[in-house]
Amino acid sequence: MAKRVVVGLSGGVDSSVAAYLLKKQGYDVIGIFMKNWHDDSVTISDDCPWLDDANDAMIVAEKLGIPFQTIDFSKQYKKQIVDYMFEEYKQGRTPNPDVLCNREIKFSVFLDTALKLKADFVATGHYCRKGVIEKEEEKIYQLLAGKDDNKDQSYFLCQLSQGQLAKSLFPIGELTKPEVREIAKAQELITAEKRDSQGLCFIGKVRLPDFLQQQLKPKTGKVIEIPTSFTGFNSEPSQITHPLNHEELKLISAPYLYKKEDGIIKGEHSGAHYFTVGQRKGLAIGGTPLPMFVLDTDVKENIIYTGQGENHPGLLRSGLFVQNDEVHWVRPDLKLVARETARYKARIRYRQPLDCATLYQEEDGLYIIFDVPQKAIAKGQFVAWYDKDELVGSGVIG
């Protein structure tokens, strides 16, 4: 009897080809479109194409001859993703809803739904791969980068557990995007030439601050420029020599702290909670020799601290910290215990090149010290660490 797979058909080419490949491989395939949003109270733009996407997904299912249905997950999505976004920005943090959506919706609520349909697996159109190894007579599942370096999406799945991976399939992980489109064309799938979706659908084609204003109201505050001569940057050592003691780890990983008197007022903004570290657009401040970037936000005092140029020392830090309860090991068998260290490659955002780093597990949490200073480390971002092409673990930056 063929194993049953429920595919998340998004109405895009990647999930369409994933469904086709699974059927070709002999699986009993069911297609489900996840309706994650329809709350007009926090939707500004009418350009949210979920209806078109659902229709395209249905047409693909008909073409492939597989059962199809639409399931409404909007209540769970609002509670676990949208409300999370608002709360994080309110606190001056930089959330990544895509990572949370995969952990909380696609590989949790959706997976539970699939299991009720007596499915053996769920499948998505993510560009990543799954490996299996045996260790002490136990199966361990690996989350591996996709073969297409330009499309690798393993970072977005960095919070998956062994239980979730065990029930997941990634049919296009061995393919490149052009190969996926060629398969879709050959099978005359309606999604073959469809452009990739960008960002969260419910926001539509609007600026994030405009969306956030639905619940986070504007509040005028000062924009303060920090000069490159600020003495607080001296806390970042020019040369890091391992091993580091606990005090050195705390020093290197701590964000720079600014006060109003450390710089000069350059203008006003409409709310510190609308901005994030490293942001360039939206400041509406001109007349400077170099572009202005956000170095930090103080949501309590409603101040934005900025600096000129993408190489401003306030944008660069070599270390970051993850609280113990925010550390997640995709490979729990590799989990570090207190006072253990390990060498991995890591990234703090999607599509960022991996850089070498040393992980220090201390009593109070995990410290990650990069060989090369990282640009715009922000609280709330996810850091993920890799062993070659395997994503080993991740955590929320504190």
Descriptive keywords:
single chain; 398 residues; alpha/beta; Rossmann fold; Elongation Factor Tu (Ef-tu), domain 3; 9-stranded antiparallel β-sheet; 5-stranded parallel β-sheet; 18 strands; 23% helix; globular
Short description:
The chain is of the alpha/beta class and 398 residues long. The protein has helices at residues 13-24, 50-64, 74-90, 97-116, 162-166, 177-186, 208-212, 246-253; strands at 4-8, 28-35, 68-72, 121-123, 128-135, 138-145, 168-169, 221-225, 264-269, 292-298, 303-308, 316-323, 327-329, 340-347, 355-362, 365-375, 382-387, 390-396. It contains 8 helices and 18 strands.
- Report the strand count: 18
Give the helix/strand class. Answer: alpha/beta
Looking at the structure, the CATH topology of the largest domain is Rossmann fold
Q: Helix count, per DSSP?
A: 8
- Average per-residue pLDDT, rounded, comes to 93
Percent range of helical residues: 10-25%
How does CATH name the architecture of the largest domain?
3-Layer(aba) Sandwich
> How much of the residues is beta strand, in percent?
25-35%
- The first-level CATH class name of the largest domain: Alpha Beta
Domains, number: 2
What is the terminal separation in angstroms? 48 Å
The major beta sheet can be summarized as: 9 strands, antiparallel
- What does the oligomeric state look like here? single chain
User: What's the CATH superfamily of the largest domain, by name?
Assistant: HUPs
Principal-axis shape:
globular
Spell the H/E element sequence: EHEHEHHEEEHEHHEHEEEEEEEEEE
- Gyration radius, in Å: 23 Å
Uncertain parts: none
